[in-house]
Amino acid sequence: MSSVFQRRDMYDSVVVDREQDVVLTTGQLYGLQVRREVDRSFKPVIPFAPHLFGSGKTRFVKSYLELLKSMGERALIGPENISDYEKDRRRSFLDKLHEAVLLYVDMRHLEPTNPIEEKRNLKWAVHYLLFKSACLQSGQGQPDPDECFKVFKLRTDVLIKKIREVFNLRTDQFLLVAFDEVGVLDTRGKFFDLEVNDEGRVRPYNDFFGILWGLCLEDNVFFIVVGKSEGLSIHNYAASVSRVELTFIPLSPLEKDSIIEHLEKSSSSMFTGSPKVSQILCHQHFATNELAELLLELTGGVPGLLVKAINYLLHCKLSQDHLLLSKESFWMIMNDSIATNYCVDPLLPRLSSLSKTRQRLLKMLTLLALYRIRFELDELVHLSSTSDVFLFDLVTDMCFYRRLIVDENHQERYEVLIPKLLIRYIEQSVKNDRLEWLLLQTLKSQPVEFFYESKCRVFEGLVATMFYLHFCYHPTDSLMFSTLGQLSSVWNEMNLKFSSESTAYYMKSIHYTRSTSEVERTTFGINDWKEIVEEMLEFEKIYIPFEPTSRSPDILFKLHGRTSGQNLIVGIACKGRWSSNGIRWNEIVDEACKFLQPVHDQVVTVHPTVHDQVVTVHPTLHCMLIIMSTKLSTSVATDLNHSSHCYSFGDRVAGVFTIPLNCELIILSESDVENFIGKDILSSLRSAFKSTDNPHSRSIGISTVQEMVLSLSKNI
């Protein structure tokens, strides 16, 4: 199957949703031209995309000029307030850029090159590769390296002049050079004599960008560099040593609307009439937006994985003309190992051979992805007492992806994306690590839209994970379970041991109203608790509502009674209070009113049913709400004597709410919450959340995330 696709793509892929990348790249090329005109001792700027397979690097650089033309003036003249003179200057630059010729250079063809005395000279190898690529791209034969060296003599001005002659370019016409697969320098640097720095280390990228610095001194020549590499390490070192300023091209994963555009614009000549992909794969009962949602769910919007998945679906359609896709058939096809192996083939060797060090870091990265903790560009991870690595580079090294987030203050940060396509293969490498398995399964279970829409939900995520681990591994010696048992006799009657390993699932949210349209609704209404409890919530699974909502607890689960006579539905309200103001009585009452009362009215008070004269007596259902707050107000803490407390049937809460029949409200003390989560972790979270609802990793602290991993691991 794989060889079929390697031989020929099934469709002509159209590049979409790269406006942000075009604007950034064009701005950097313009910046190079301005610096070149102002000061001949300038530091060149070069757009740089050090990303993993599938991020769209090659397609972007090959399509850049076409994308540029389609954007028009928006590529360089935005909404910012600039003078008419500057606008005219930018228009003139754009006009010339539209006439540019793109020279594509594949660095995989870099090799020691004759003459013999220059074979270990990286500069000559790069110069010859540039000229050879130009000759081959223009339809000429491969030039003789010995003859070329006699002419060029390592002179950049002669090299650029000869390339212009090959393409028949005017001296004032722009030449745009795109270096692809620059990551080969990781392994091929050993074939060349490279500069040794003061620490006795060789850095091939420093030599490479030093060569580009010399080429940038030539007029009307511009560069884009892409390829998998330790991008941030190279970025920082090149800036200080090579006199080159590298600017990252984000190439973020695509979102749903962009995938729809891709499906509707791309066509396949493998089918009669070269129809659009959306016309081939979709039909009256399976719309394009449905296919886009499924592809986003599977690939995370990573372009390379997306294209491979579409290729596979088109092959299935070509070989089975009667195939009508649906949500069910899509997953049946794409969950097959042949399909997944094809899609992730370039990553398989690395995914299947994770070292112990990388396995240890894997849990930290999975937590960052799961809890949507953003990180800054220059954030460091300590591998040992003497070794650090940039988190930006670690994400690439681990075969994961980054998504650029620009907040309301125009601050740029990144999120870790682990596509669901990869999770199966990561699991195989860490099959004996139950915590990593849980985190990956939880990541797999959550809807991918959560990645694009949600706020950081660290606290409830930690609580849900801790409860799961206690249910699975330590139900009898859990201090939290012991506390709940002392407070509630109903809790003691429950089976607290999960018999099968589950994960935290993300259910549809509960809101004030429900959708009445024919389209499948994405939320439950406040009168839907019977459906939620009986149809949505399964035993031995822990649920978190898909969206943060004010109409339900943050965590939900159902427990079996030790006898068949009673079951328990539990809601946990995670109240992260990170400032001096603790949770007040009115907030506690509000939580009880929105959960205990409607669940009691709609579910708990169910009467026996009669069908064909057979009376069915349903198990007694109890309902418990647990208030887990990081800080209680002074009045609440004082009234509870700084201890955890349980309110049962008939008890009055704050004098305004009466606990319904078969319901309980438990308010945990600050000390019990602290013992459950961990004092140091809560202290770090309190510092992080003081000023924002969505803190990034630096404010939380990578050390805190690593501490979370250690804390969770101790519960297995």
From TrEMBL:
<dbReference type="InterPro" id="IPR027417">
    <property type="entry name" value="P-loop_NTPase"/>
</dbReference>
<protein>
    <recommendedName>
        <fullName>Archaeal ATPase</fullName>
    </recommendedName>
</protein>
